[in-house]
Specification:
Elements lengths: L2 H11 L13 E7 L6 H20 L8 E7 L4 H14 L4 E3 L6 H10 L4 E3 L14 E3 L4 H12 L7 E6 L3 H18 L5 E5 L5 H13 L4 E5 L2 H11 L8 E4 L8 H4 L6 E6 L8 H14 L5 H19 L5 H10 L3 E2 L4 E4 L5 E2 L3 E6 L2 E5 L2
Parallel strand pairs: 1-2, 1-3, 3-4, 4-5, 6-7, 6-8, 8-9, 9-10
Antiparallel strand pairs: 10-14, 11-12, 12-13, 14-15
């Protein structure tokens, strides 16, 4: 839908509307994600995107004259805390919850909100354990399996490719689906058995020794890596010591933060990253969004902040168009829309609330992303 996009373009021309009176009761929206600790980078970016979109909506009159009010909670990457947060938000009267940021917390929190009949829209829970259910859970990130299958097919497109899949066990709810997609693709298209290696509590020298042995013993020339940007960078640093095999190393979208290229030393090997965000977008729409975002937060838009914006985009449409703020009415309104405009391109929901959107491929050279035109 174009309503939120129009608001953003209006905001570019006139950054704020003065004298907006809060004559009506605010509409409460909950947000809960991992905002501290090792895996906080995703949740923090999403929080900025969500707050940014709500800010612009409120500056331009809100939803049918009512202001949106965001209640933010840190789930601490802890299942019990995540559920407690959601229950507290529901008790406060939120119309919907935006969250959570990590797939590891997806199954339990979605089960909880379904029991409470409360709509949840996630910017980044990609686990396939939640795929295909007609419930109150929506997401603007493609499923982990679909992403894994697409990335594996692109990574292994060259003749003679032989791959090793490396994944973070700590977020297996996400990376396990990437692994399953990798295994399925290799089994269907190659004569060798899938090779994989999982690590816990971050990449270290012992992991490197194990990976080095697997690479040399199995004549590996391609790595597909499901890890965050910190672990991806640490892996790159260690792999640059391995000179016996020239490797093509492909990182899933989990690693594709703005700082990933600065963590990569691409002297020995070739590095690729995949993202649902194109940082080389020079369109007027993206530039307008990004300028306002930078002016407010001192940082540029990234994939997760855009996904945060997209959740608000979809929810904004539902709040404006639904007969009521009842979760079932909001759900039916979300499902009834054919297409939603995003900061980049567009996205849509299938009949179960799963999303469809494009993916971009980049090569990392000299600490810089370069878009590959596929």
């Amino acid at each position: 839908m174009k309503k939120l996009l129009i608001l953003f373009l209006t905001a570019i021309a006139s950054f704020s509307l003065a004298g907006c009176k809060k004559e009506k009761e605010n509409i409460l929206i909950g947000f809960s994600a991992t905002l501290t600790g090792t895996y906080s980078e995703v949740g923090v970016s999403e929080m900025y995107g969500v707050e940014f979109a709500i800010h612009l909506i409120n500056e331009n009159g809100g939803v049918n004259g009512r202001q949106l009010e965001l209640i933010v909670k840190d789930d601490l990457f802890d299942e019990t805390t995540a559920i407690e947060n959601d229950n507290e938000l529901i008790d406060k009267g939120v119309v919907a919850i935006i969250g959570h940021s990590l797939s590891q917390l997806g199954v339990s929190t979605v089960q909880n909100i379904n029991e409470k009949d409360k709509l949840m829209i996630s910017p980044s829970i990609g686990t396939d354990a939640l795929t295909g259910y007609n419930d109150y859970f929506f997401r603007v990130v493609p499923t982990a399996y679909d992403e894994g299958a697409l990335i594996t097919s692109m990574a292994l497109s060259e003749a003679g490719s032989k791959a090793l899949f490396i994944y973070d066990n700590d977020n297996f709810a996400l990376t396990g689906n990437h692994k399953r997609a990798f295994d399925d693709y290799v089994n269907e298209n190659f004569e060798y058995q899938p090779n994989s290696y999982g690590f816990d509590n971050g990449i270290d020298s012992a992991d490197y020794d194990n990976i080095k042995t697997l690479v040399i013993d199995n004549n590996i020339n391609t790595l597909v890596v499901a890890a965050n940007s910190l672990n991806a960078g640490n892996l790159s640093f260690l792999l640059e010591q391995l000179t016996t095999n020239k490797l093509n190393i492909h990182f899933t979208s989990w690693a594709s933060s703005q700082d990933l290229p600065t963590r990569i030393s691409s002297i020995v090997h070739n590095y690729y990253s995949y993202s649902f965000f194109n940082q080389f977008d020079v369109s007027e729409t993206f530039s307008g969004y990004n300028n306002l975002f930078f002016e407010r937060y001192g940082r540029n838009l990234d994939m997760m902040s855009i996904f945060g914006i997209d959740t608000v985009n979809a929810l904004y449409h539902a709040l404006e168009s639904s007969q009521s703020f009842d979760s079932n009415d909001l759900k039916q309104t979300l499902l009834g829309a054919f297409n939603y405009d995003s900061v980049q391109g567009s996205f849509s929901f299938d009949e179960n609330g799963d999303v469809l959107r494009a993916i971009y491929q980049f090569e990392i050279i000299d600490n810089t992303y370069f878009l590959i035109d596929n």
